[in-house]
Amino acid sequence: NGFVQVIDTLTGQIIQTLEPGKAVLHLEFTPRGEAVWISARDDNKVVIYDTASFTKLAELPAESPSGIFFTARAHRIGF
To answer: What is the pTM of this model?
Structure first.
């Protein structure tokens, strides 16, 4: 699956469909929630989207990415 659908939790309607790439495995929101990083394993990249506008901000090359963790989260679980 190469799609991520954004759902309005009040209406249950799909309001946006993102296409980051093949084999989407993980999503991680930045600590303040202003962006989401999405791993697209089979396209060897991590794609970053703005969560307010759904605009693609960047694509980062990564060999078969399967997880994304920010240091704020790592600190909470002891890494």
So the answer is: 0.83
